[in-house]
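Progress narrative, Year 2. Work on Probable RNA 2'-phosphotransferase from Methanolobus halotolerans advanced from sequence curation to structure prediction during this period.
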Amino acid sequence: MIRKCKQHGYFRGELCPECDDEGRYVLDDEREERLGRFISGALRHFPEDVGLEMDSQGWVDMDLLCDIMKKRYKWGTTERLISLVESDRKGRYEIDGSFIRARYGHSVEIDLVPDYPENELPYLYYGVSQEEADMLLEDGITAVRQCYVHLSTSLDKAMQAASIHTENPVIFEIDAGSAQEDGIDIIVVNDNIVLVKSIPAEYISIKEAEE
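Result:
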């Protein structure tokens, strides 16, 4: 559920995490899920199919998106879209004036490198299945279904991400510092996720479990 606190803005849950105020109702769980699926598809995967024109950095006109959204969902107000974006704990989307875009997760081809800061962490992490590990250690990691490879900023986050797809993931440690020194662009989109087009095998090693 999304609610709005007068003092701290939109939040998810029953009470504002900053002041325990119950706030004002904005969106229930079912509608939040339905709107979230639509926005994800429109901003990441099939903008043209819903009638949107996306620029090379992934931005679309927010007023047009709202008009399209309202035709599909009579309850799909602009405020509810904004609440979905501003309360999202994973930082999936961003609004800049009259434009909106997804920060990551694109399957359509876009260029985010000019807009986000360079990674400053020396090492990053990526989780894979046991079956994939040997092949990727030899061939490197390349985006397949998405525009960018999504690396994690911590071992725990990589484990969480990989555990969605496999029960016993192998965690790679990526020598990001060396990769960037050699000209590979790695950009930061939020506290947990950085993006790269590909990582050659020479920068990848298996992160051994710490005792």
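The first strand starts at residue 2 and ends at 5. Helices lie at 29-45, 47-50, 62-72, 78-86, 130-139, 155-163, 176-181.
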